[in-house]
Amino acid sequence: MSFSEKAVSLHDEQHYNCCQAVLCSACGRCGMNSDTAYHLGAFFGAGMRCGEVCGTVSGALMALGLKYGDENNRQCKASREFLNAFEEKYGTLLCRELLRQNGKSACSQYIAFAADYLEEHL
How many domains are contained in the chain? Predict the structure, then answer.
């Protein structure tokens, strides 16, 4: 099963929030177990519950940080590349704007995009 298939299934069928779905889809490749990833992402859905940065983006950044983060954040290029790719595709990083543009039914496409990106870049 691909990262995106797993992430969308976790979100749509098991009711994980968007952050949890993305982070859990990639956690094995990042050296984190799924239970820890699930709990870590618990409060990052819905733009940290207030419509700010999309939880999908937060989950992807967590996974990228596990792979590329270091004590001096010298590898932050990986985060910037993901942020640019997401914003280029969807026009914003903010949950409230994404929901206003496309409604909640579009969340699965954001989740799939982030999971596909992680599968390619981790």
Answer: 1
Contact criterion met (CB below 8 Å) for 42 and 25 = no
What is the domain extent for residue 54? 3-121
Measured distance CA(83)–CA(86) in Å, rounded: 5
Task: Report which DSSP code applies to 50.
Answer: I
Burial of 38 (0-12, 13-18, 19+ CB in 10 A): buried
Instruction: Name the residue among 31, 87, 88, 85 with its Cα closest to residue 62.
Output: 31
pLDDT in tens, 68-122: 887 766 668 889 999 999 999 999 999 999 999 999 999 999 999 999 999 999 9
pTM of the predicted model, to two decimals? Answer: 0.94
Can you tell me which residue has the tokens 């590898």?
75
